Amino acid sequence: MPHSDPVDPVDPAEAVTDVLGEPWLAETIDLGEDHEGPLVATLVSHRSPRPSGRAVLYVHGFADYFFQTGFAQWWLERGYDFYALDLRKYGRSIRPGQTPTYVTDLADYDAELDVAWQRITERDGHEQVVVAAHSTGGLVTSLWLDRRRPAALVGLVLNSPWLDLQGSVLLRTVGTAVIKQLGARQPMREIRRDVSGLYGRSLHRDHGGEWDFDLTWKPLESFAVYVGWLRAVRTGHARLQRGLDVPAPVLVLSSDRSGVPTEMGDEVHSADIVLEVPQIRRWATALGAHVTYVAVPGARHDVVLSRPDARRRAYDEIERWHRAYVGEATPPG
C-alpha cells in the first residue's frame, strides 16, 4: 500500500472537547484516503497548569487507544503539556467500513506522527518533547524516531514495547517465513487465534479492574489479526533487531515476569500475559546507545495500569530516570 500524504500537515483542525471531557481536546489529522476510504488520525491534548515549554507525545498499543489519564496527569503535574495520538484505524480514528488496526507497512504511520510532531513543536512552540509509547506503539515510535531523529526529542519512555514475536525460535523462524510469503499474496487473510479476554477483564472496571474504557475501541477479545499486518510488524522487528539509533535517552519498563493463565487469578493481575518479558529484556539495548531497562515486580502488560504497588514503583522509576537524564521539571504540588 502506498504511503498516504497528509492533507494540511501544519494547519490545525478545529479542536473539540474530547470524549474524556473538558479540558481534554481532540483534533483530527486528515491523511487522505486508502482502499477503504478516508483516513484520519486524532491528536488529543491537555495543557499543564504550569507550562514549561515541554510536552509528551504518547502512542498506544495494538487493540488500544488513549485513555490512560493517570499517566498523563503524572506529566501534567510536572509542567508537561500532554498529547496522545490515536493512529489511523484505532480508537477515535476508526471510520465506518475500515478494518481496525490494519496497515501493511508500519512506516505508513510516519504521516500522522510527522503532523503531530509539527503541531506540538512548530505550531504550539514546545522545544523539548518526550515520546512515550506502549506495546506495538513502542515499536512504531522507535522506528519512526530512528528515521526522523527530531531535534526536540529529549527522551523516550517505552512501556512493554513489542520487540519480537512470541514463541520458540523455531516458531519465530518458520512462522516469519510463512507470514512474509502469505502477507505478500493474501494480506487480508485472517490469522485465527484464541484470545481469552483475561487481560482486558483485568483492566476494565466492570470485569475486575480499575479502569473505564470504550469496549468498542479496546475489545476484551482484541481485534482480528491479518497476515499483511503481521508481516509489517515482523519487518519492523527485523529492522529494530539490526539495531536502531534513537537519539535520546530511552527508558524501557516491563513486568518482571510473563504468564499464560487460563482463568482469572493473581497471575492475571501481576504478570505480563500478553508479551514475553525475556524478549523485551533481550532487545531493549537494540533501541540505541543510551537505554535504561527496569523490570517492575508485579506489573501488568500496560505497566501504568498495574495494581497500585506496582504502579507506584513504575512512576518512581520514571521519576528517577527523568531526573537523571532529562532534567528537572516543574515539581508537583
Tally of strands: 11
Q: Count up the helices.
A: 9
Measured as a percent range, the helix fraction is: 25-40%
Q: What percentage of amino acids are in beta strands? A: 15-25%
TL;DR?
The protein is an alpha/beta fold. It has helices at 69-76, 110-123, 136-148, 169-185, 198-203, 227-241, 266-270, 277-283, 308-325, and strands spanning 16-17, 25-34, 37-46, 54-59, 80-86, 128-134, 153-159, 190-191, 225-226, 250-255, 291-296.
Provide an overview of this structure:
The protein has 9 helices and 11 strands. The strands form 2 sheets. It has a 9-stranded mixed sheet with strand order 1-2-3-5-4-6-7-10-11, sandwiched between helices. It has a two-stranded antiparallel sheet with strand order 8-9. It is globular. It is 31% helix and 20% strand. It has helices at residues 69-76, 110-123, 136-148, 169-185, 198-203, 227-241, 266-270, 277-283, 308-325, and strands at residues 16-17, 25-34, 37-46, 54-59, 80-86, 128-134, 153-159, 190-191, 225-226, 250-255, 291-296. It starts with 15 loop residues before the first strand and ends in an 8-residue tail after the last helix. It is α/β, with parallel strands linked by helices and 333 residues long. The longest helix is centred in the C-terminal third of the chain and has 18 residues, at 308-325. Helix 3 (136-148) packs across helix 6 and helix 4 packs across helix 6 (227-241).
Topology overview:
Elements (H helix, E strand, L loop, with lengths): L15 E2 L7 E10 L2 E10 L7 E6 L9 H8 L3 E7 L23 H14 L4 E7 L1 H13 L4 E7 L9 H17 L4 E2 L6 H6 L21 E2 H15 L8 E6 L10 H5 L6 H7 L7 E6 L11 H18 L8
